[in-house]
Design brief:
Helicase, Ruva Protein, domain 3; globular; single chain; 0% strand; Cyclin A, domain 1; mainly alpha; Rab-GAP-TBC_dom
């Protein structure tokens, strides 16, 4: 999970902790990217680093240092899946700390129990998941989505406790599951990564009230007001708040905006540095539309369907925005997907 103590120099030093406050992206970042002649080889070298000896394994500090280097490589060059299709599944599992033998028997037991208590709600959503993306539909069948989501409901049905947040199926979970089923090597891996992602990284986004989503939308308005007062005031003059125009993008962490390849590139970044940064990624998309929005008398017509996602410029703008936010506001942003307000 993202930690506020990690907030300050990754991009300043290009080697520091994942959530450190960077300077605005610019030529130094681009030079670093171009200076890497084979990013796939660099990532594979890091992923394939052997244990220290036959009897000595890496310490937590060794693992954290390796993750720090991995995040740096992701920031500077992304995950070059065209060169090695195995990279993204391996890296996502590492970033989510899903390692070791996966409990296949447990997943099979969940599936064997049949329809979960939320099956009807699940079926109402799964058939339209990324429905216009033919590549997704060819790789991920509806029954795979239903099985995974049913299993997730059963998993948490068995683990209910007064001291834990409850998890049931809620709107948007079908879209959040889609990238895992598309990218991971097996349905079993997708289930474990999705479960870890939901329960640890953004549990408040999937509560019955969608508490984390609504907190994120309020934070989007506050961040936009600081980052671009003119754009914020223009939208407000048309009675447009983030709740109205940005709900799908916040609910699904931008997975609702095609193309899927760009969504996956954006998720590489979000899994590496924290899902809270999706709020800034939505603002970045507004910036890419800024002139059109400001010149429009009816900007909601533009915002009803965002333009095709462009992950790299969105990431660069989001990284630059981190620097402009007050520390207290960024602290709220980091915590909003998972910290319960008392």
């Amino acid at each position: 999970m993202a930690s506020v103590s990690n907030i300050l120099p990754l991009i300043n030093n290009q080697m520091s902790e994942p959530l450190n406050r960077p300077r605005k992206s610019g030529s130094s970042t681009k030079r670093s990217i171009s200076g890497s002649s084979n990013p796939a080889a660099a990532l594979n070298k890091l992923l394939n680093a052997p244990r220290l000896s036959a009897t000595k394994f890496r310490t937590k500090e060794d693992v954290d240092e390796g993750l720090k280097k991995l995040r740096r490589l992701i920031l500077l060059g992304g995950i070059p899946t065209s060169e090695d299709t195995s990279l993204r599944p391996r890296i996502w599992k590492l970033l989510l700390r899903v390692d070791g033998p996966l409990a296949g028997d447990t997943y099979i037991q969940y599936i064997a129990r049949g329809a979960s208590p939320d099956r009807e709600k699940i079926r109402n959503d799964t058939f339209r998941t990324l429905a216009t993306d033919m590549e997704f539909k060819s790789r991920v069948r509806e029954d795979m989505l239903i099985r995974l989501l049913d299993a997730f409901v059963w998993r948490n049905h068995d683990r209910q406790s007064p001291t834990q947040l409850p998890f049931r199926y809620v709107q948007g979970m079908n879209v959040l599951a889609a990238p895992f089923l598309y990218s991971l090597s097996s349905e079993l891996e997708a289930f474990h990564c999705f479960s870890r992602f939901i329960e640890i990284e953004c549990p408040l986004y999937v509560q019955p009230t969608l508490e984390g989503v609504h907190r994120g939308l309020k934070l989007l308005d506050r961040c936009l007001q600081i980052a671009d007062p003119e754009l914020f005031q223009h939208l407000r003059s048309k009675n447009l708040s983030a709740e109205i125009y940005a709900f799908p993008s916040v609910l699904t962490l931008c997975a609702c905006t095609p193309p899927l390849a760009e969504v996956l590139r954006l998720w590489d970044f979000l899994l590496a540095f924290g899902v809270h940064l999706n709020i800034l990624c939505v603002i970045a998309q507004l910036f890419l539309m800024r002139d059109s929005i400001l010149s429009s008398t009816s900007p909601m017509k533009l915002l009803r369907t965002f333009p095709p996602l462009q992950a790299q410029p969105v990431i660069e703008i989001a990284v630059a925005l981190v620097r402009d936010l007050p520390v207290e506001l960024y602290d709220e942003l980091v915590r909003h997907p998972f910290e319960i307000e008392l």
